[in-house]
Amino acid sequence: MSDITSLSLTKLVKNIKEKKLSSEDVTKAFIARSEKSKELNSYITEDFSNAIDKAKKFDEKPNLNLKLPGIPVAVKDLFCTKDIRTTAGSKILENFIPTYESTVTQNIWDAGAILLGKLNCDEFAMGSSNETSFFGNVLNPIDKGLVPGGSSGGSAAAVSGQLTPITIGTDTGGSIRQPASFTGTVGLKPTYGSCSRYGIVAFASSLDQAGPMSQNVEDCALLQEVISSYDIKDSTSIDFKRNEYSKELTKNIKGKKIGIPKEYRVEGMPKEIEELWKKGIEYAKDCGAEIIDISLPHTSYALPAYYIVAPAEASSNLARYDGVKYGFRAKGENLIDMYEKTRSQGFGDEVQRRIMIGTYVLSSGYYDAYYLKAQKVRKLIKNDFDEAYKKVDAILTPSTPSSAFKIGEKKNDPVSMYLNDIFTVPVNLAGLPAISIPAGHDAAGHPLGLQIIGKAFKEQEILNLAYAMEDKISFKNKITDWWIK
Amino acid sequence: MNIDLKTIKHISKLSRISVDGQKAEKLASDLNSIFEFIEKLNELNTDNVDPLTSVAETTLKFRSDEVKSKNIREQIIKNSPEDNEDFFVVPKVIE
Hints:
The structure holds two protein chains of two kinds. Chain A is α/β, with parallel strands linked by helices. Helix content of chain A is 36%, strand content 12%. Chain A is built from 15 helices and eleven strands. The longest helix of chain A is centred in the C-terminal third of the chain and has 22 residues, at 367-388. The relative contact order of chain A is 0.14. Chain B is mainly alpha-helical. In chain B, 35% of the residues lie in helices and 0% in strands. Chain B contains three helices and no strands. At the A-B interface, helix 9, helix 10, helix 11, helix 12 and helix 13 of A face helix 1 and helix 2 of B.
């Protein structure tokens, strides 16, 4: 029994299909391990007894043709789940119980999966360390003193710590790829429009995208196949031909052209990141890929542009939390006083900071200087990628400028926290797909990730590259189960 | 660029978030360091660049305007902090 949680999704599916394991066996194993892992603080809401009931029901009449037959899955608490509390890591939604289901989670249940619970995240997905959650920070299974990354920190910790075989996160500026990199797991941010945003608590609507997180690339491909769909309920969902990502997965990447952008060699980058990148280039060559030096000249402007666009959209999206229709309400002397106290007491510091930035850059007299300027810079960043993709099929970079940092290390310095997303943010601004795969360790044995960025809608291409490279890298996560007494 | 306490008060009013003295000073200091970082964009000349408003290069689809969710009043009211079963209740707004 104890070995079940170390199996990959693909192996679990195989075992269930061959009737070597039941959904109940698998579900109970992940629940037992989750129960012993409370110290990680990965979960905000558990739904364990319902999960066991659903597993038993599945086993009575198992539909083994499904893609995720009876597989238990915990999801980031940013996805609305019908009748199950959805908090977005915020006090303002502490008691919010959705009356509808997000499209992405519905796709997962339709494929046969069973909800285990809702996973911790930075408040409204605003953060890179999971320290902004109202429900407390998450510990990294790699090492007690480290952040798991963010905002999908609970999700990354849950996959890395084997509390769930797979999970889904959301990525607005790196929130899937950075925590995946910090925890030695795989995370894919799909092309904007690939996964429906319907029922996901909105942060920055032109950047937000849901995506899979897993132990390996094969699992990632299978989950992407399940969650990606055209959805009439999301006006920015795109109707394109989606691959059967797991079936079409191949390690044959011979002749693929991979670009190495010189601008990602940033000042002060630790030597081990530089080394990792070099090794990544060698792995890609070993797989038969061709390496080409490229330039993405506006890279260093991506982060400042992001910190205008994302807060601007957030300030507008979060205007809905007014203490009237749902969520927390503070007592006030009149309507305005109630609004102001509700939002002041209901939102945490980082969320308030971003609403303030966003409000300011959209306010009269500043719109052109900030918001319009940032949108123009966004265009230049997208042009950079368009230009590069005339020469290459994909781009290889480090996922993050460092390995996981210590809890509390960057909490009081917003700019140094923001700098953590320097390699991930350009992808969101350009709407491209990108995957982070674990590729090595730093001197302390903490995992480091490499990022493969693809052309729009070419998820299959980067999954294949990741699949081939994963084989060469043969990464092993160093997890001691320190939190299990 | 210098964001002073007067500006913080103005933004706080626009964003409907009450901000007291100590918090205002911390916010002013944080926002100043963030905007100092953002000012980097001014190095770029963007006079002849079109703004990018959406990465999805598709036109919005038309659909007929049909009611899809009927009789969901109860669901809509369900999460409200205060209601009288038919309406959301807010502090009195008419003198």
